[in-house]
Amino acid sequence: MTVTVRFAPSPTGRIHIGNVRPALFNWLYAQKQGGSFILRFDDTDRERSTQEYADSILEDLTWLGIKPNRIERQSDRFALYDAAAEKLKEAGLLYACYETAEELERRRNRARALGKPPVYDRAGLKYTDEQLEKFKEEGRVPHWRFKLPNHKDGDPFSFERTEVHWDDVIRGRQTVDLASLSDPVLIRGDGTYLYTLPSIVDDADMGVTHVIRGEDHVANTGVQIAIFEALGANVPMFGHHNLLTTASGEGLSKRTGALSISSLREAGYEPMAVCSLAVLTGTSHAVEPAADLDALADMIDFTGISKSAAKFDPEEVGHLSARIVHGLPYDQVAARLDALGIQASEAFWNAVKENCNTVKDAAQWWPVVTGPVTPDIADEDREFISQARDLLPEEPWDETTWGVWTKAVKDATGRKGKGLFMPLRRALTGLTHGPDLKSLLPLIGRQKTLDRLA
């Protein structure tokens, strides 16, 4: 069996770090198993779905290193969903219901008041001709529910406990009692499909073998298995991982734009920092930056994923990104530095990278090397700076020059420690902090150094 997985986002907003968690779990699992990854846009909501958001999702996934083997759009596949709906109707498993949202809510409240579960009572199967005629006169249109196999044969109103079991690849053995659930609505009153039926039809038609998704779908899985079986389709294996939340326990939402991938990319964070945080948070593995997606795949152990929601600190993205940046060799950043207008060398990158949280941060150190720089020389340090200028060694310079020069200045002036080094740093860079001057000084050069010490 060739492993086939899918990621099915709705192109109704920009995806965030919580969305890419299932995308990465699926992608990494497929890579590890030598399988295939399908990007399937759930764009059946024609009013809210846009090509702009679909393009941004693909751009975000590409930036993270996820390269779909196949891209599909559900808006191109309505004929398949219509055929499946007709098949269920002909089998008596998809039936029309005319209740309004307000009527349904009143029934649920009444059931709760009586101490009963607020499960739909299948009133749609008991309409009289008079009722149907009245609905027609009122202009009501039906929504369509799938009749769950949770009753005694021949009597859809004799509910009985009906357990659906599956071996979840993440959570282990799972059980859902269909009698505790309402018959799901598959088609809205306006004729549009909810997520469920298109997803099942596509999974079956595309040969999806594993559905790896968030734990909020666990109860849905029992229902979906019943629909797979009603359509005579192969049931895939399911895996449900925990969800990411903010530190306060709030869920992430496209509507708020919280931690959108595009915003993290624009901030200059490294893609592997985002991938590592999205995947390793809430697992038994330490949250650390993986070198690449192959290394991240080796870190994943589905049995080590917690069954509790995974809270994380958004600032951790920056911390992980900085750790990656500090270890990046010059050949991996040269083109990015060039795009920033930095005509740098390997020596420059090695000198400044420990002071960069993102590659973009190198831009703040480039003027320190090339100028212009406004020296920051206190009045009480001017004579000291003048003495230091006179003791400046001749070129050529290398990383030993700073030590040779400061030793000569120390011997001549008697200054040491902060009193020796800080005035020189402020004169040369205009700052009180920054990269190690033993690496920076040769890049600044003797003439610029003389000019700044003048």
UniProtKB/TrEMBL annotation:
Domain named Aminoacyl-tRNA synthetase class I anticodon-binding: residues: 349-453
Claim: Ligase is one of the keywords in the record: yes
EC number: 6.1.1.17
Top-rank taxon, per record: Bacteria
GO MF annotations, alphabetized: ATP binding; glutamate-tRNA ligase activity; tRNA binding; zinc ion binding
Reaction(s) the record says it catalyses: tRNA(Glu) + L-glutamate + ATP = L-glutamyl-tRNA(Glu) + AMP + diphosphate
HAMAP family listed in its UniProt record: Glu_tRNA_synth_type1
Family note: Belongs to the class-I aminoacyl-tRNA synthetase family. Glutamate--tRNA ligase type 1 subfamily.
Function comment: Catalyzes the attachment of glutamate to tRNA(Glu) in a two-step reaction: glutamate is first activated by ATP to form Glu-AMP and then transferred to the acceptor end of tRNA(Glu).
Protein name: Glutamate--tRNA ligase
Gene that encodes the chain: gltX
